[in-house]
Design goal:
Blueprint lengths: L2 H14 L3 E2 L2 E2 L3 E6 L6 E5 L9 E8 L5 E2 L8 E3 L16 E10 L2 E2 L3 E7 H4 L6 E7 L2 E7 L8 H4 L4 E8 L7 E6 L3 E4 L7 E9 L13 E4 L7 H24 L1 H8 L7 H8 L5 H8 L25 H11 L8
Antiparallel strand pairs: 1-2, 3-4, 4-7, 5-6, 5-8, 8-9, 8-10, 11-12, 12-15, 13-14, 13-16, 16-17
């Protein structure tokens, strides 16, 4: 092919933004296989200058089986092999050694396969953080630890010798932490605590086969008290409550007919009782009160007439008013 024609084809493909070069798509980049809590996920980046409408197909393999089909014709940039239908494919096992590959497709064009790194599940998986709950009992705190949920198997089945590292401190003194290591029980009681103090706790899981410890749990805080609550008190209260509930149920079942007749009686009242209750009262006082009329009010009108005589001389105003008040005539007229 002449050099001029090759240069024209390359220039045309670059201007059009296509990933097709000599009839082959560019391959995905940064292909990597990861595992978190025993899942198996293949991720990648699209080809450089990828056209829209690209789809991808993935496969996975082990040292003992050939490549098996994973996700087919997907547009996302990841594939979780542990979520595939295992009835048609071999199941992912917790001690397997896996690697994957992916290729891009656009119409009838396909890129070359790109392989990922290799992962050994029990050694390379990232263990998530445990869930921690605290229960205060007097001057002690009980720590309850729940393992993270695995996509394949369980933590205790995969790591039979897993241990917990517990770190705790007073809420106001983070720099003075205390540690308890290599604990295999998922319930631990902290009894070297001060009363009426808030403590914060964080837990991490260690295993023998996985060199990396788990992610740290969230920080959980709880306060101690001074007096230890007797556990038998709660047991007695619960027993009494349950006994009362059972007794009420038994009484309701045995005497259900009597209770029903008492609440919803079926017998009607005698007719003379109904007539007596519905009859108007014949009391004399009641009849007088019913037929009585409001009493007629009697009142008298009065008129006040002021005297208009003037005050002579240089008599002060207050004196004049006093004299006037003494000389005023009040006429009462009855009507």
């Amino acid at each position: 092919m002449p050099a001029t024609l090759q240069a024209f084809i390359l220039t045309f493909s670059t201007l059009c933004g296509s990933t097709v070069v000599s009839g082959i798509l560019s391959s995905p980049t940064n292909v990597r296989l990861t595992s978190y809590n025993m899942n198996l996920v293949l991720t990648w980046n699209p080809p450089k200058g990828a056209a829209s409408g690209l789809i991808y197909t993935t496969e996975y393999n082990t040292s003992v089986i050939p490549y098996r089909v994973g996700c087919v014709n997907i547009s996302t940039l990841n594939c979780d092999f542990t979520r595939l239908n295992t009835s048609m494919r071999p199941a992912i096992i917790e001690y397997g050694k896996y690697f994957g590959r992916v290729r891009a497709q656009l119409g009838s064009e396909s890129s070359a396969w790109v392989e990922s790194n290799t992962i050994t599940m029990d050694k390379d998986t990232i263990i998530g953080s445990p869930n921690v709950s605290l229960f205060s009992n007097g001057a002690t705190i009980e720590v309850s630890i729940k393992d993270p949920v695995f996509a394949v198997s369980t933590l205790r089945n995969v790591y039979s010798f897993a241990t917990y590292n517990i770190t705790y401190w007073k809420n106001s003194q983070r720099e003075k932490t205390r540690h308890i290591s290599n604990i295999q029980q998922n319930r631990v009681v902290l009894n070297d605590l001060d009363p009426w103090t808030e403590y914060c706790i964080q837990v991490q899981i260690n295993t023998e086969r996985n060199p990396k410890p788990s992610k740290l749990s969230g920080i959980v805080c709880e306060s101690t008290t001074n007096e230890e609550a007797a556990p038998w008190v709660a047991a007695i209260v619960t027993f009494v409550f349950m006994a009362m509930a059972v007794a009420l149920v038994v009484v309701a079942v045995v005497y259900r007919e009597r209770i029903s007749n008492f609440l919803c009686p079926k017998d009607a009242l005698p007719q003379h009782f109904k007539e007596y209750l519905l009859a108007h009262p014949n009391s004399t006082i009641y009849m007088d009160m019913r037929n009585s009329h409001p009493p007629e009010e009697i009142y008298h009108q009065i008129s006040i007439i002021a005297d208009d005589r003037s005050v002579e001389g240089e008599v002060p105003l207050e004196v004049a008013r006093t004299a006037c008040s003494k000389q005023c005539d009040v006429t009462v007229e009855e009507r």
